[in-house]
């Protein structure tokens, strides 16, 4: 059978065109448009992400985000068909960059606070952080009432200072966390209250210090909401990007439902479900979430 060369040429041209269209449909910009139609991105096809490089939350390696928050952010972007564009900056600059739409989103062990709701939008939580009692191994301090006759310390200006003074008025205040840790290791302090994820990470990464961080498991006390409560760790976004925020929250919900956040955090030593269990209060209700909104929960971890 003889094939008409004109027909063959036309068919070949159509085939090449179809292949080109298919290829274009799989580019980051096209995929993002398909997955999250109408997303208010700074750069089409890319998720521009502000980070400050503080581990275990965020960092970069070979141009890719790392850390607990960084890995979760990367997974969110993948689910939306977006390419991550990291933007390193100081913490204060992150919020301003989000507000001015120089970046799409910020992250790095960022907690929900009421004042922040007045300037930016905040996503659903990706995990939770609560107070840790960092101590030398074998001290066996597991409850707050054990602190009354202990030498407790934190960094000057930290939010938990007034609450710690309710437990023990003789709280020692340090200029830096490094100085406080050195005194703990040297035996000049019994218990430290510092940044929870950072202290957990240090305890794991530097076993030679012979310290451990024990979660505060006392029931929630409204008189001590910082020490007995939990922080929602989340992402910050512009209030001018509601569609993108909706898509990201949907991706976060899927991550909770597949236990992906727990699995990623476990790679950094955060295997305790403490980091994925909320406290009894929910300050977001009626503020930036409806009254019937509930915390996400892990599923599919078995």
UniProtKB/TrEMBL annotation:
Keyword Signal assigned: yes
Signal peptide: 1-32
The entry's keywords: Signal
SMART domains membership: PBPb
InterPro entries in UniProt: Solute-binding_3/MltF_N
Segments forming domain Solute-binding protein family 3/N-terminal: 46-272
Stored Pfam families: SBP_bac_3
Name of the protein: Amino acid ABC transporter substrate-binding protein (PAAT family)
The organism of origin for this protein: Pseudaminobacter salicylatoxidans
Lineage of origin: Bacteria, Pseudomonadati, Pseudomonadota, Alphaproteobacteria, Hyphomicrobiales
């Amino acid at each position: 059978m003889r094939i008409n060369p004109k027909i063959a040429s036309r068919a070949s041209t159509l085939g090449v065109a179809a292949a080109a269209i298919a290829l274009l449909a799989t580019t980051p910009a096209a995929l993002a448009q398909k997955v999250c139609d109408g997303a208010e991105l700074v750069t089409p096809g890319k998720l521009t992400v502000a980070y400050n490089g503080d581990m275990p939350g965020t960092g970069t390696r070979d141009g890719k985000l790392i850390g607990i928050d960084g890995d979760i952010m990367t997974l969110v972007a993948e689910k939306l068909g977006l390419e991550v564009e990291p933007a390193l900056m100081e913490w204060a600059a992150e919020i301003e960059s989000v507000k001015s739409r120089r970046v799409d989103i910020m992250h790095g062990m960022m907690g929900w606070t009421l004042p922040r709701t007045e300037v930016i939008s905040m996503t659903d939580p990706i995990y939770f952080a609560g107070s840790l009692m960092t101590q030398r191994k074998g001290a066996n301090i597991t409850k707050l009432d054990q602190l009354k006759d202990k030498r407790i310390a934190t960094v000057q200006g930290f939010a938990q200072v007034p609450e710690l003074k309710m437990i023990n008025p003789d709280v020692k205040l340090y200029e830096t966390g490094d100085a406080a840790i050195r005194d703990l290791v040297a035996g000049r302090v019994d218990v430290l209250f510092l940044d929870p994820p950072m202290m957990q990470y240090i305890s794991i990464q530097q076993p030679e210090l012979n310290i451990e961080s024990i979660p505060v498991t006392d029931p929630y006390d409204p008189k001590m909401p910082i020490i007995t409560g939990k922080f929602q760790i989340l992402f910050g976004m512009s209030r001018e990007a509601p569609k993108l925020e909706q898509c990201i929250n949907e991706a976060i919900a899927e991550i909770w439902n597949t236990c992906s956040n727990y699995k990623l955090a476990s790679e950094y030593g955060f295997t305790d479900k403490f980091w994925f269990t909320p406290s009894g209060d929910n300050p977001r209700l009626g503020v930036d979430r409806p009254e019937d909104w509930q915390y996400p929960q892990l599923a599919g971890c078995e």
